[in-house]
Structure formats: structure tokens, C-alpha cells
User: Fold this.
Amino acid sequence: MPELPEVEVSRLGITPHLLGESVMRVVVRNPSLRWPVPAEIQELVGLTIVGIRRRAKYLLLETDWGTAILHLGMSGNLKVLPQGTPAGKHDHVDIELANGKLLRLNDPRRFGCLLWTREPVEQHPLLARLGPEPLTEAFDGDYLYQRSRGRKTAVKQFIMDNQIVVGVGNIYANESLFGAGISPKREAGNIGRERYLTLAGEIKAVLARAIGQGGTTLKDFTGSDGKPGYFVQELQVYGRAGQPCTRCGALLREVRMNGRSTVFCPLCQR
Ligand SMILES: [Zn+2]
Assistant:
């Protein structure tokens, strides 16, 4: 599943090809995504893309008239290709631009979406209740500390809650809790301010590192593959259950939390 870093790298990859370009045609081959692609998406035609932003894992193609909201779901990817490139299986939507290129959405499992709104996009039902972006100043240890008071939920679930902070997927939750030395099972409300300062810093660092590593694949973005893919980074705990902790040598343990693999060091994380 594309996580926040992959979506951010997709945004960086498509921006130079789309920004300032006007839309010539929108070809919808299969509107049956997670929600049907609305007929109003054709309002894009003739409009100029004035911004390509990201909110959580939504890509926002902004015009002066409305905003297209794009999500890659479980398996979606974007390619920038020359117009006339034959469409393959699962190539559901093309947005053709005045510069002779097209933006192609491929999504085998069709859990992604492409929607259109003329309202202020931050108030769209999909976006209105989202927590802050992890890489902004609005997100820090004080914020986590305040939001966690009185919460009995496990800290791992707490930081993976999109209404608390967006974009902390399972891998990043595992890694940042290890970095901060916090047990994933600890009650969110029982963690002090200092430890949340450390945790917020770890969350920012692990996401920024993933985006940085993904950025090195950008030159291939318009290639035949087009998938920025998972960024292979050195993971300290995720996928390493039973192997020695990189800090203390104890064997890492794995439990399931909300059905997701949770790996931690029983000595370093408390
Ligand atoms: Zn350890």
C-alpha cells in the first residue's frame, strides 16, 4: 500500500509535468473505483492546474474552479506518459495535458479514487477530520502529549489514528516507537511530555528519511514502471522479529495489535 512517503514522492514526481498546464481531455475507462469517478470530473477540461498539494495520502490537483482529489488506495500508481501511449489493463483514468503528456492512474485493486469538488477542499468529508501533517510545525511532542491525556488506548494505535496525526503507517509506527524507546503497548495517557517530544521527533525523522530515499528514484518516475514503490530503508525492528536488537542484542519480539505486525525490543522499549 502506498504510504505517505510514496504519495509525497509521487507528488514531487508529477509536479514538474503538471504544474501550469491546462487539461485537454479526461479519459475515464473505468469509473468503478472505491467511489465512482463522478461525471463532473470533466469540468477539469480547459482548466489550468495551479497547484499539486498533498493532504494525508490524498493528492490534490488544484485549479481556479475546483479541486480533483486523488487517492492511490491499496495498489494505485501514477505515471506521466506521452499522449497516445496505449493503455494497459487497470489503466483506469488519463488526464491529458496541453504539453502532450498525460497523467495515468493505474490501480489493479481499485481501492483508489478520483473525485471532484468545487468547495474548499479542506472541508471535504474525506479531509475535514484529519489530524495535522506530521512534517509540519503543528505536529510536535506537546501536541501529542495534550491529545493523549486520559487516553487508555495503546500508544501505537494512538499515533496510527488519522484524527490524531496523518501518515503514520504500520512500518513507521514500529520504527518510531523503537527509536523513542517506547513500548507499543503502553497506554497513550501514561506517557509523559518528554517522551512524546522524543517520539514526535522520531516520527518526523523516519518519514523524512523515507521521502528522501524515495526522491532518489524520481528520475525513473516517467519510466515504464512508474511506481516509486516501497523505499528500502534500514528498518530497525519491522520485519526483524526474532533477530537481535541493534542496540542491546536482545531478541526482538512480535505481537499482533489490531491485526498488524508489531515488533519491539523487550529491553529497550518500555
Ligand atoms: Zn534492545
